[in-house]
Amino acid sequence: MPYPQSAPTGLGQVAQQAAQVLYQHRLVSTRQLHRLVTPHHTRTEYLRRQLHTLRGAGFAEVVGRRSTGQTELLWWLTEKGAQAVEAVGLLQQRPYRMSPEAALGPLQEHTLAVVDTGAAFVEHARSLGHECGPLDWSPEIAHYYRDEARPGEELCLVPDAVLNYVHTQGKQRTLLTFFVEVDRTQMTIARLAQKLHAYAAYHEYAPQPQTAKGPRGPRRQATMPAWRYRYPAFPRLLLVLTGASEERLARRIADLRSLGASDPALANTPLRAGVTTLNQLRTHGPFEPVFTPVLGPSEPVDAWLRGPIAAAA
Question: Which parts of the chain have pLDDT scores under 50?
């Protein structure tokens, strides 16, 4: 993809791809960019040179972060870099802009964990011959709805990411869309369980029907659930836990299931929600039995992601 005239000459394809990833995902480490953009290179030197080319041109900035005893570089686009990507017109424009303060702020680890989650899907898609690339998930997409339990309020559901994945088996191609929520054990388990209510309410929400005039007088127009205007099938909700030991996360999964099972408001919801850990997702992939349904049977099932509500691509 060529950059506009303001881009420096000699900007390589890898630098251009990295700029798109930075624009989409806001804050990304060199290690993550290597996994997403240059996985075919065994070393990161070429990627690093391209990133420093972006920085030298004023398109990107960087900050250091201590991780496992070493300094890891985190990259983001400057206003100039974001405008250059927007001028090309290949990505949906996003108003959010990263800053040095935000890059070093309290949401740093959460932002990087969301990128790690998406990267796990990308890596396993490559190994399985499926389709999921670095731009196939979008962070923090707003979904507006109303809830009968809170009359008069317009509510906003904002998943950490909406991820698209094309599963291929022989000649059968299946488009899968997921709502992704990443939990680093920073919120209480009750608040995490409350997210299930928001997704269940959004599943049921249909805009108020409008009145239209017909030959026999006014009539009410039928409306569809709001999600059908966006998705061919309601996305499954994936809860990905990280930020603690596997033992602690296993207890958190059990607690989440207990709260879901004891909540009468969720007794009859058709919401499909599964929970796993980031380590399990990265190690085994999304199509191994790593997701435990939050509602219903407790045993992990490998077919959970590809049930009857998936839509053919």
Answer: 1-9, 308-313
